[in-house]
């Protein structure tokens, strides 16, 4: 029996491109489809997690939501890599700055991800696993930022299982040079590694834990386009 459609993705064989650009908010995926894709066709609306396939500069590409948190992105990206033949996934999302030089709207290219998640335990590795990005994607994204004149930093992020934390210990992550906090990178990076595929996380700073500055939900949904420009340049 075929593995597709899956319990979470309603697409049929061939409806999803080998490169998928993903966002936590499915409405951001819809926004990307409308802004960046030519002739987008919806391939998924199961659980409201919208997905579309079209072309960008003549190349076939898909966009899709992945929800919030490591368990959610872990499910969607596992199914994309292992059941739909996807080779490259680029997450575009928001993050909270842990670095004084990262301002609202700046980009973070997540070279690696620290986490308080237990996601890696399933692999029964004899030590701690360090989830990292695909280097060619990372280098391409940095080159694109330089070319486009976008402010960015490359480095480690902290991916938390908790948004509202009793003890966030942000100062300790800052002391280790961690740039920002988000909630999805390690599951994506581990799923890519385990399936032999590629992944990159590009985040826009939506709030600063250093200064207390914040953006609105509307701004996060529709105005964080620099990371999208970079992601689509990698297709």
| Straight-line distance between termini | 32 Å
Strand content: 25-35%
Q: What is the subunit arrangement here?
A: single chain
| DSSP strand count | 9
- Along the chain, the helix and strand elements come as EHEEEHEEHEHEHEHH
The biggest sheet amounts to: 5 strands, mixed, barrel
Mean pLDDT across the residues is: 95
Please tell me about this protein's structure.
With 235 residues, this protein is of the alpha/beta class. It has helices spanning 26-36, 70-83, 135-148, 170-175, 185-195, 217-222, 226-233; strands at residues 19-23, 38-44, 51-56, 59-65, 88-97, 107-115, 152-159, 180-182, 198-208. It is globular and about 45 Å long.
Summarize the structure.
The protein has 235 residues and is of the alpha/beta class. The chain has helices spanning 26-36, 70-83, 135-148, 170-175, 185-195, 217-222, 226-233; strands at residues 19-23, 38-44, 51-56, 59-65, 88-97, 107-115, 152-159, 180-182, 198-208.
Secondary structure topology:
Layout: E1 19-23, H1 26-36, E2 38-44, E3 51-56, E4 59-65, H2 70-83, E5 88-97, E6 107-115, H3 135-148, E7 152-159, H4 170-175, E8 180-182, H5 185-195, E9 198-208, H6 217-222, H7 226-233
Parallel strand pairs: 1-4, 1-5, 5-9, 6-7, 7-8
Antiparallel strand pairs: 2-3, 3-4, 5-8, 6-9
Features:
7 helices, 30% helix
């Amino acid at each position: 029996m075929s593995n597709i459609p899956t319990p979470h993705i309603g697409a049929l064989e061939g409806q999803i491109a080998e490169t998928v650009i993903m966002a936590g908010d499915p409405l951001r995926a819809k926004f990307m489809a409308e802004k960046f894709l030519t002739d987008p066709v919806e391939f998924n609306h199961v659980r409201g997690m919208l997905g579309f396939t079209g072309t960008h500069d003549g190349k076939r590409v898909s966009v899709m939501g992945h929800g919030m948190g490591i368990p959610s992105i872990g499910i969607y990206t596992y199914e994309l890599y292992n059941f739909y033949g996807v080779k490259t996934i680029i997450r575009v999302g928001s993050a909270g700055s842990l670095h004084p030089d990262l301002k609202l709207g700046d980009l973070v290219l997540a070279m690696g991800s620290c986490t308080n998640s237990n996601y890696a335990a399933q692999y029964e590795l004899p030590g701690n696993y360090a989830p990292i990005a695909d280097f060619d994607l990372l280098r391409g994204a940095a080159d694109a930022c330089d070319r486009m004149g976008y402010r960015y930093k490359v480095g480690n992020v902290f991916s938390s299982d908790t948004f509202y934390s009793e003890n966030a210990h942000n100062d300790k992550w800052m002391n280790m040079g961690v740039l920002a906090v988000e909630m999805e990178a390690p599951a994506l990076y581990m799923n890519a590694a385990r399936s032999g595929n590629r992944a990159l996380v590009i985040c826009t700073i939506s709030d600063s834990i250093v200064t207390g500055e914040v953006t609105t939900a509307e701004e996060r949904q529709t105005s964080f386009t620099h990371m999208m420009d970079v992601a689509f340049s990698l297709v």
